[in-house]
Amino acid sequence: MKRRIFTSILSVCFSCVAMAQNNSAEVHVAHGKFRSQPQDKAFVESYFSINPQTLSYKKLADSTLSANLIITILFKNEKNEIVNFDKFQVETEHYKNIQAINQEPNFLLNIRRNILANGIYSVETEVKNDALTTSHTSNLNIDFDVAKYQFSDIEILDTFYENNSTSKFSRGDVALMPSVINYLPRYMNQLHFFSELYIPKSALTMGKTLIQYSIQKKETGKILSEFSNSFALENATTIPILSSIDITNLQSGNYELKLMALTKSNEILATKTIEFQRSKPLQAKSFYTSDTSMVSNNDIQKTFVAQFDFETIQKRLTTLYPIASESESNYIDNLLKSKKENNMKMFYYNFWVNRNMQNPIAAYNAYELQLKEVNNAFGLAYKYGFETARGRTYLQYGPPNSINKTTQSADMLPYEIWDYYSLGNQRNIKFVFYAKDRSTNEYELAFTNKRGEVGDPNWMNKIQNTPSSRNFDNNTLLQNTGNTFDRDFNQIIGK
Hints:
Blueprint: E1 2-5, E2 7-8, E3 18-20, E4 27-36, E5 41-50, E6 56-59, E7 65-66, E8 68-76, E9 82-91, H1 98-102, E10 106-116, E11 119-129, E12 132-142, E13 150-151, E14 155-162, E15 170-171, E16 174-178, E17 183-184, E18 190-198, E19 208-217, E20 223-234, E21 238-246, E22 253-262, E23 268-278, H2 310-318, H3 326-338, H4 341-355, H5 360-378, H6 389-397, E24 402-406, E25 415-423, E26 426-435, E27 443-448, H7 459-463, H8 474-480, H9 485-489
């Protein structure tokens, strides 16, 4: 995916008849956290990648066409208060005609930087282009500490090059062009990345710091040694890290790029990871009806995906959310907004190729059986099973090793406690689900100790059914429920 820089508007465009290309604009947004000099402030880089063929254009006085965009970024704290606000205008280049727009191979790229203090934020972005509005929301946790070794976020790059002139994409004399969606197609044979390591002043006299990078499988955490390397850098308050990995032989799948800072004795000082998706299937000599190769746009009709109409492929994409990576989920969001049926089918098919290169239709069929089980067990009149908390958990992590549930407790709402012996390298994982009332089969997630999941410090208050007991802390509630919840919750399971 190529990008073209688009610049801030200095004057208002001449307005004539709007020339919309699509019903909605295709916009990709990402954010990166860094520290500035002096190292007592943090700033957030917001990256925008926009498909010019999905914008609404206006004819200017010279008969060329240009699109005007207004971009707003809101940073809100945990109290939902706006703590930073950024609004700016941009415009595309001037195109000769509609045909020139449709032939434009590049995505438009922009970047903004905003200073923020440490804290937890929601970031709301809005891109308006005449009647078209595209919104995006994400969360940020900024926790820089000058007394610790810490990495900035990792920025995966489309490319980088020497640039002696000042530009919004420059760091020093190098221009860094971000890859906003972290999707590496087959034609990209280099993974370029940038990050910064921040070193406490007390450690500057210690000489050099060892930097190690590696690619590991997302699902298993297995490090791929052929895509790993290390090097030593002289200590400074900020150490820029700009490097590339040859990924010619990296096949399709979901991966993590991991950075580590270590001492000479291999003591870990700091780590940082970022997810990315690679699309480079094994090459097949010919196309087989068993769907053993990645297909082009023209060949998609030869796969099992060809049976889906527009509504069906939309629904099929939503069923992937429980098992999709974060980058895949973001890509699905944008596909659903774009309403491009062929792109949806290509992604859906390639999703299963990434899970089973030799037989993607087998991976698809196996998941379809799981969906039927989940819908039968957890489905509601107004919601599919995979859209419920229990359904999502079942699909994402598989069936639990044991389930303890109660529906008749006088002082507790109906609940289920799911126990997993192990998930990855974590042991004795629990999920606590509860029904809001006794007349529904919809259970919500109240608590889990699974790393990467979001817990609630007041989870016991949610399932406690005695109003007078809601003022107790969690431990007191566990000791005074007068039922089997504490026994069920504290059960330790094993193989």
